[in-house]
Amino acid sequence: xxRLYSSALTLCTFLSISAQEVVWQKDIKSSTQxxxxxxxxxxxxxxxxxxSSIPSRTSGTTPSTGSGTALSRASGISSLSKAGSTLPFGSxxxxxxxxxxxxxxxxxxxxxxxxxxxxxxxxxxxxxxDFLSATVNTQEGGFLLAGTTFSGKGLDKKEDSxxxxxxxxxxxxxxxxxxxxxxxxxxxxxxxRAVIQTTDMGFFVAGNVAFGSLPFDSAQGTExxxxxxPQGTSGTQGTRGYGSKDVLVVRLDKNGxxxxxxxxxxxxxxxxxxxxxxKDGGALLGVYSRSNAVEGSGMPDSGSKAISQKPKASxxxxxxxxxxxKLSKDGKMxxxxxxxxxxxxxxxxxxxxxxxxxxxxxxRSERSGxxxxxxEEGTDLWLIxxxxxxxxxxxxxxxxxxxxxxxxxxxxxxxxxxxxGESTHLTKGILLGGYTQAxxxxxxxxxxxxxxxxxxxxxxxxRKHVKGESKKKEERLxxxxxxxxxxxxxxxxxxxxLGKENWKIVKLxxxxxxxxxxxxxxxxxxxPVSEYAYVEINxxxxxxxxxxxxxxxxxxxxxxxxxxxxxVKTKNKVTKINTQALIQGAYLVSVKTNDNKTASAKLIKK
Length: 606
Prior knowledge:
Helix content is about 0%, strand content about 50%. It is mainly beta. Among the domains are: about 30-185, no CATH class; about 520-605, Macroglobulin (MG2) domain (Immunoglobulin-like, Sandwich). The chain is globular. This is Por secretion system C-terminal sorting domain-containing protein. Keywords: Signal.
């Protein structure tokens, strides 16, 4: 991997507002064309950058396997025209001849610390193209990687191909070492698009499946890790899918054992774009839908069977709509909603708010269907606020000129003590990130990262473009994250010409955002906890802050009777503590700094 530079940025703003502090910038290059799918803020407040790359290989040698690889969402196998098309889903064009080494894309991961310095880099390789689409933190500090593979068994991949493209899951620890992996698929083409961890420590994996026959044994369920044709059929008989592409949701336990599968779809094309966990332990799916309702399909929810099939009940308003699906914690559909006008409306992202959910994407529709706002030019951003039952609260549109593409969304919340003494959180602001593609006349800020900040009701507060000192011609944002300290990290690709993209990561400090962030001397997460908790210390002992390499603090855990259970000294801002030996109940975590400043917080063990 080659570092190109680490330097300051210049910021071009639309409004006269306070300047931002550029903390650092990193450009990362590993191959001719690198795709960036996601940036994950780790539990210890570091950053995992994931995408797909073709590692440099010299003298015909093969890089050591098991060292780590990741795919980019921008290089996803389907719908890639949105961010630069590469390999079409299910197309033989994306496949390479198998050989003693891989000449295709690998899963590629780079972990950075808070200062933007590399902690480790990993590749995971099959013998064909492998694309990493999504990553999620696990509660013990590791990650689950979910991607799409065209590879059979070989190199880092330990299972045979199930047929066509498959879903490839790899669980790793905080150092990038593999814990387990799993291949999910059937004779048809499957792809992974999103993954979340559930409250029971298991996972939901969402993706797409394209098939002529539904590859399930509806009488006997599934084999572990496979989707099967109904017994006694030739593959063209038996239960069929709903459209050209359907939604597939797989529920797994923490060890990767499949618990259930759900197929959703209408009479057309449906593609998962985003999935987020909900407060009740379920999931919210955001789907770009180009399909109508299935009427009289004869495919009811299979209920208690391992395979569940649910047809789309809501019709489309136009060419493409937002299709929102709420799942229960056991993977059953609770409700669905469809939003759109008569044009093409493409959902991109979702977020939780204090009142329900926020859904966003871009729209080419004028006022029509259930779209209450028009468009100004090209495509506009279209946001809809929903309550927890999916009913609309408000909707707004925003324009940057040309084709505006929304790639990320973060919600800022503040504590709101309730009458019962428990604290809930109120949404105070919404931070959006994306880029604008040129369509027709080229504007000065096309192909540049942008940020848009809104209040809780969707009213615009400010917008900014983020550029580098040596900004390249094509710069497209892939993800944006708001950190607990008020800083913002943007991750995307940068190139002089399309097809030669490398990764660009920028960390900004924003005084306006920082003022809205809840400040606490000590934070514990996750809380309640099952196995491991992270203690974040934000106390200034007068001579410095933890994380500067000099300041030290002592963390002590007590039971509610005052008995000391464990103690550890640390110089880190975030420290991992083992809670596996604690029984269910409440505990007190106390922190004491060099100059005897103290703070404490309650820890709940599940």
